Each structure stands twice: as C-alpha cells, then as structure tokens.
Amino acid sequence: MNRGFISIGIAIAIALTAIVTAGGGYAVYKINELEHEKAEIVAELEKEKTVNADIVQATTTDKAGVSLAKSTEISSEESKSNEEVDTQHDVMIKQSYTPPSVPVATDVCMNIEGIQSVVPIGYEVTDKICTIKEKIDRCPNLIGVQETIPEDLIFYRNTNECLTDNKINEYENAKLKEAKQAELCDNATDERITLTQEIAKINEEYNLKEDEVVNAGGGTASGQYYTITAIRNEKDAKTAPLYDRLNVVYAEIGAYCN
Predict the structure, then answer these.
(1) Exposure of 123 by Cβ count < 10 A (0-12 exposed, 13-18 middle, 19+ buried)?
(2) I need a surface site. Which of 28, 102, 118, 189 has the fewest CB within 10 A?
(3) 136 φ/ψ angles, rounded to the nearest 5 degrees
(4) 240 assigned to some structural domain
(5) For the chain, where are the alpha helices, taking DSSP H only?
(6) Given 134, 151, 182, which residue is the final one in a domain?
C-alpha cells in the first residue's frame, strides 16, 4: 500500500513537470484534475485498507474460534481420557483391595443381655450360661459373709473358724485336756472291767470251796460253820483290795468320762 502512494506521487510530479513546461491555463486545469484523481485513488486505497483490515480481523476471529473449538475439543478429549484413566484406576483398586476381616464377637454369656466377650467379674460360666458366683464365707464363726480373712485372725482348719492366736492356743489346750480325760476315762473303764472280772473269779473260787464243805457232810455243824467262815474270811481278804480299787476307778470314771 505504501508503494502505491509513492507511485501516485511520482506520477503526479511527472505530470506537473509536463504541464508546467507546456503552458499556464492548461497547467492549472491538469493540476486540478490530477488532484481529483489523487483524492479518488487515496479514497480507494483507504477503502481497500478497511476491507483488508476487516478480512484480517475476521480471519483472526475465525482462527481464534477454530483454536478455541480445537482447545475445547482437546480439553474434552483429555477430560474423557482422564475420566477413563480414573475409572480404570478405581477398578484396579477395587479388584486389588481386600477389606480387612472384622472379628466376630463371641458371646460367652447367652443369658445376659448384650454380647459378653468375657465372663463378667463376679460371674462363673457353664455351657455359656453365666451365673453369679456364690460368695464363700471364709469365717463362718463371724457375723456376715467374710470373703477374705481379717488381718488379725487366722483360719483354723480344726474348727473351720477364724481365730486369734490366743484363741487357737486355748482351743488346743482344751483339746489336749479333753484327749487326756478321754484317755483316763478309757483307762478307768478298762480297769473297772479287769477288777470286776478278778473279783468275780475269786468269788466263784471260794463259793466252790464252801459248797464242797457243805456237800462233804460229816463232822459237827459248828465245825462246818468255822470252816465256811474261814473260807469266807480268806475270800474277803483277797477281794477287799480289789473292791477298794474298784471304788476309786468308779470315781475316776465319774470324773473323766462325763
């Protein structure tokens, strides 16, 4: 376009030179004519410039639209591709994911509301039936239930009681005394039996002697009397100490065996 303006200028200059050389009035006419043509040419060039600018703008707009469309299409394709990749990734994760095993709680007390994974304190279980433990009284001789033995007491197995040391000593001494009395009672009882048997044997022996004197006959009545009296005195002499001892034994039995 600049070259066009330069060409017009050169043509006008040449024409002006020719006109000036040729003559005055005609020269003025030609100059005016050339100026008019110049104005028309400039107008045409300006119009051409405007049209070219519109074409360039339209072309630029079209290219921008195509570029935007292509960019939108590419973005859509990329988004779709990304979605497909994400979907494939999710599928792979789902296929490779193994959910953790959840432990199943075991109810050890079927008769108690809720799930009891362990036997509650104070309960005992039999065939999944939990019942309250029966409280054990460690000291039956004390008032109330003693689940533990008091510090100042000792559980004494001989009596199944909780006692102090002094009480245990008293009990053991009493037991020793009872044992001794039982022994004395047994000894006295045995001795009583022995004495009774000895006395019975002596009596039997001398009774037979008396019967022999009576059955023998002969002699005087006074003679038999003296003889029997002598036998009895002899028998009494033997049994008297036994009777005395037997009386003592009966006293011992009364003391030790009651």
Answers:
(1) middle
(2) 102
(3) -95, 125
(4) yes
(5) 2-22, 24-96, 165-216, 221-256
(6) 134
